[in-house]
Amino acid sequence: MMIFYGCCSKFRSTKFTAFKTTAYVLCNFSRSRSMSQSTSIPKKVERVRDHGYDNYMEVEKKIRKVLKFQDLILTQINQTIPVSRLDVSARRLGFKQHEAGAFVLKFPHVFEIYEHPVQRILYCRLTRKAHLQIQQQKQAVIAQIPDAVTRLRKLLMMSNNGRLRLEHIRIARSEFGLPDDFEYSVVLKYPQFFRLFDAKETRNKYIELVERDPNLTVCAIEKARERVYREKGSDAEDIRFSFIVNFPPGFKIGKYYRIAVWKWQRLPYWSPYEDVSEYDMRSIEAQKRMEKRAVATIHEMLCLTVEKKISLERIAHFRTAMDLPKKLKDFLLQHQGIFYISTRGNHGKLHTIFLREAYRRGELIEPNDVYLARRKLAELVLLSPRKAQLNRELVGYRRERVGYDMESSRPDKLDDYGVGDRGNVRDVLDSDMGSDSESDFSDDSNRSVDETFEEEDVNITK
């Protein structure tokens, strides 16, 4: 019996030792496997929110609705629309019932509701500040048309065959700072750069580049690398193919992920302006270079925009012409240190791509005139309605105070000399709401009664 128990215990110890050895080998195999996979950036990375960009898009969501109402009012006769018809017209733009009136009242610095003097009907129009902002933006867009021509030339040079659909550029004209009539003011006005033609097979209009300019083939990231090299004196080999990476706060960077990013930064790639049709794309090295070239293409496209941001849906229009990957969102999530995807606006259906290096604390680092003009509208939207009501109360109080002072200093006998025919001073001031002057009276009308009687006596004597 003792012999049998000793054999069983020896067998169990041997089996347990073999199990420990097998588990140790499997554990080391799994570790070595994870280490080998971590040398490349993972395909699926969890998106980390950056509240600075999301708050920026919350304001943009309001601005998009405001622009819809602005276009609706500007297309009306005399640029005014009755409030009763505003709700019906706004429902065609996607607004719910009775939402238009409440929305307009939220932004009194942009929209003004007044009563028609004859019809006694409430009308809605744009304020003077809103008109000034629209005029400033139009002037800024017209002034930078030469820069817009350069941006359009660079955009065409990044395409495979030097041509893009006219409709795709028309959809993204606001992002690239092109005027609404860019087909005539930009494309047809500069025939030495662009050519407009109809494709026979698809019956679509295309914009084609007439001639490639080698001076325009320098990317914005190359200028940034040169600036970093001159200012910080970094190693030329490390920044030769690198991008500026700023991860969002809260993004977890592990040891092996950091190594993978470092290897990806040193990976060479082809320029977005370079023709790659002659290269063999069957090797793994060529595919990695093309993936990094896609990052450089999107980076350059964002640098060509006015606000250094563009929606993901509009980038997808250029996917075929610029050899971009099919799953753009998953592809951009791998590089959250370079781009940021915001899903704020339109109930999460709109994806806006920001260039992280171009922004600091929610503001563009190098603003332009078009960007500043558009931010004027954002300032009007963000102004509190209480401030607008307070301004009206202060204006009314000032006019009432001026009228009270003039009434108290005016004798009753002035009514016999024609001043009383104009009514009360307060009524005169209230009737001239559009005037900036405080009173309709001149300095001569404030003379005393004694001076008036003395002048009459002199005339009688003569």
From TrEMBL:
<dbReference type="GO" id="GO:0003723">
    <property type="term" value="F:RNA binding"/>
</dbReference>
<feature type="region of interest" description="Disordered">
    <location>
        <begin position="407"/>
        <end position="462"/>
    </location>
</feature>
<feature type="compositionally biased region" description="Acidic residues">
    <location>
        <begin position="433"/>
        <end position="443"/>
    </location>
</feature>
<feature type="compositionally biased region" description="Acidic residues">
    <location>
        <begin position="451"/>
        <end position="462"/>
    </location>
</feature>
<dbReference type="Pfam" id="PF11955">
    <property type="entry name" value="PORR"/>
</dbReference>
<dbReference type="InterPro" id="IPR045040">
    <property type="entry name" value="PORR_fam"/>
</dbReference>
<dbReference type="InterPro" id="IPR021099">
    <property type="entry name" value="PORR_domain"/>
</dbReference>
<feature type="domain" description="PORR">
    <location>
        <begin position="48"/>
        <end position="384"/>
    </location>
</feature>
<protein>
    <submittedName>
        <fullName>Protein ROOT PRIMORDIUM DEFECTIVE 1</fullName>
    </submittedName>
</protein>
<feature type="compositionally biased region" description="Basic and acidic residues">
    <location>
        <begin position="407"/>
        <end position="416"/>
    </location>
</feature>
